């Protein structure tokens, strides 16, 4: 088979080059010479993880695309790209969309290299199989974000290695992309371990693959499979659970604890691997992490959606000197300068799995005792009364509200509004009058179309 390179990945390869370039050309290692040893395999897989924590500065694009585009968060008015997304006036030139597209494809490029190259390395078979499964998990993770954000996207499953042949791929049907996402998560699920120890903590696990499969099935409205898979994650053998005290949920010492399933990892200190997300959420000119930016402002609507007696209020929010409420989930008192925060960013945690199970079970046949138990476990921790005696419609609304409250500021709200068909009605009712049905997907970044005309036509509603 001829070696192929896809034109849209050229930028990603250039971005990835910073990992290997230095002032001495003789130190360059080609891919043919790199994938030789056990250490090479581990290094390659570790590099594939990077895109889940580099989607914008310290992962801020997950919040921008998942929260600012919803009724939960408003941006500071000093960044036009964020304001466009908030007000639904964005165009294919939006830099946040471009950055996210390229970041996810950079991750996919690295995953494809692992899947093709690592099987050829002579090494411990169990470790080799695990590393390949980690790459499959990550590829599923990146494509799951891409297909929800942009709809039809190119589906690339081969390593890009040279410029010998340039191919201009077309965008694949959404159903085909989801088939591959499910396959990647299933392949990973069958191999990955339940847990790790030491420095390997935080890598993709069997439970993480199952959790994402449950969310994929929920998104596809395959509720029976969503309920089945989420219930598997709830099995005692996986060791997941809810922290009794809400303050423990986001406490740095508990980052790899029982509620964490898959996080983007950050490490404090002078290495430059720390997060600065707390500065984006802090009040402007607050001294946290050197200086708060005030970039992401929780709306009054999300704050007022909580019951005044909800124990999450004083944990999830802090009142600024301006009388407004700010997100209080990411706190690191040791972060006195930028990029020093040790806070991981939770992509999926056990509370969400409980909510997936409750929602999916209800959709299959109405609220059951197990569905009530799942959502009430979260409510009880929040100091709220148990749900009981609800109709299927009432239970659906209660669970969706609970998702909004429990998972606020974790990048989920826009996806929930889209998958439940509520984006337009919800935002228009709250004053975002520009939003239309075509905004259920974002436009393909214009720079990608300029490089590859096969990506046309642009998504409906956007400039062609």
Explain what the structure shows.
The protein is mainly alpha-helical. It has 3 domains: 1-192 and 443-464, Serine Threonine Protein Phosphatase 5, Tetratricopeptide repeat; 220-259 and 349-433, Alpha Horseshoe (Serine Threonine Protein Phosphatase 5, Tetratricopeptide repeat), CATH 1.25.40; 266-343, no CATH class. Helix content is 45%, strand content 6%. The protein contains 19 helices and 8 strands. It has a two-stranded parallel ribbon with strand order 1-3. Strands 2-5 form a two-stranded antiparallel sheet. Strand 6 and strand 7 (325-327) form a beta hairpin. Helix 3 packs parallel to helix 7 (125-150), helix 9 (206-219) crosses helix 14 and helix 10 runs antiparallel to helix 14 (350-365). The chain starts with a strand and ends in a 13-residue tail after the last helix. Residues 1-29 have low confidence and may be disordered.
């Amino acid at each position: 088979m001829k070696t192929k390179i896809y034109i849209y990945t050229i930028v990603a390869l250039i971005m990835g080059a910073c990992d290997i370039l230095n002032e001495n050309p003789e130190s360059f290692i080609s891919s043919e010479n790199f994938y030789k040893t056990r250490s090479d395999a581990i290094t390659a897989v570790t590099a594939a993880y990077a895109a889940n924590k580099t989607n914008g500065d310290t992962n801020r694009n997950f919040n921008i695309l998942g929260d600012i585009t919803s009724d939960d968060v408003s941006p500071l008015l000093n960044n036009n790209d964020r304001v466009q997304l908030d007000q639904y006036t964005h165009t294919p030139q939006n830099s946040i969309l471009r950055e996210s597209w390229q970041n996810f494809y950079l991750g996919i490029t690295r995953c494809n290299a692992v899947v093709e190259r690592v099987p050829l390395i002579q090494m411990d078979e169990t470790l080799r199989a695990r590393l390949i499964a980690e790459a499959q998990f990550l590829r599923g993770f990146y494509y799951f974000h891409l297909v929800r954000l942009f709809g039809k996207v190119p589906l690339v499953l081969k390593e890009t290695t040279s410029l010998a042949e340039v191919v201009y791929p077309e965008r694949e049907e959404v159903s085909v992309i989801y088939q591959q996402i499910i396959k990647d998560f299933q392949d990973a699920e069958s191999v990955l371990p339940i847990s790790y120890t030491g420095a390997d903590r935080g890598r993709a696990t069997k439970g993480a693959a199952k959790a994402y499969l449950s969310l994929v099935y929920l998104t596809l409205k395959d509720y029976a499979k969503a309920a089945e898979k989420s219930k598997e994650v709830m099995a005692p053998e996986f060791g997941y659970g809810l922290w009794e005290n809400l303050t423990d949920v986001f406490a740095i010492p508990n980052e790899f604890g029982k509620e964490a399933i898959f996080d983007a990892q950050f490490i404090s200190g002078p290495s430059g691997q720390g997060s600065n997300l707390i500065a984006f959420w802090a009040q402007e000119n607050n001294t946290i992490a050197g200086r708060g930016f005030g970039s992401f402002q929780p709306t009054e609507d999300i704050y007022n959606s909580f019951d005044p007696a909800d124990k999450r209020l004083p944990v999830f929010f802090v009142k600024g000197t301006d009388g407004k409420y700010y997100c209080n989930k990411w706190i690191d008192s040791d972060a006195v300068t930028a990029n020093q925060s040790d806070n991981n960013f939770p992509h999926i945690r056990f509370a969400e799995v409980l909510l997936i199970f409750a929602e999916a079970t209800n959709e299959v046949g109405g609220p059951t005792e197990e569905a009530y138990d799942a959502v009430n476990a979260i409510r009880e921790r929040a100091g709220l009364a148990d749900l009981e005696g609800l109709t299927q419609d009432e239970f659906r609304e209660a669970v969706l509200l609970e998702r909004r409250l429990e998972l606020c500021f974790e990048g989920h709200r826009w996806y929930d509004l889209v998958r439940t068909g509520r984006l337009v009605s919800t935002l228009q009712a709250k004053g975002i009058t520009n939003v239309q049905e075509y905004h259920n997907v974002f436009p393909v970044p214009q720079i990608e179309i300029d490089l590859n005309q096969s990506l046309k036509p642009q998504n409906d509603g956007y400039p062609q």
